[in-house]
Design brief:
- There is one protein chain.
- This protein has 90 residues and is an all-alpha fold.
- 91% of the residues lie in helices and 0% in strands.
- The protein is built from 1 helix and no strands.
- It starts with a helix and ends in a 6-residue tail after the last helix.
- 0% of the residues are buried.
Length: 90
Amino acid sequence: MTPELWAVITVIISIIISGASLILGRKDKSNHDTADRNYRQGILDQQLKTITDKLDKIERKLDNYDTEIDTRIDKALSIHIKEYHKGAKK
């Protein structure tokens, strides 16, 4: 074999090794990026679930609060009528 043929073979092998390294390196980075993206999405999903749970709890308290206020108002009116209107009916 001539030195020129060895040089061509060496260049071809170098190109193949470089291309394989590039492809495998990109695949590894892609896998890492996908895992990182999935992890961050999981964190966001958990935070949204926590916020939703807290909003539901606040909504239940507000609904309860409305009922409680109505009850207190009715009771106060009843007491007021008994004391100041000599027990007149509502």
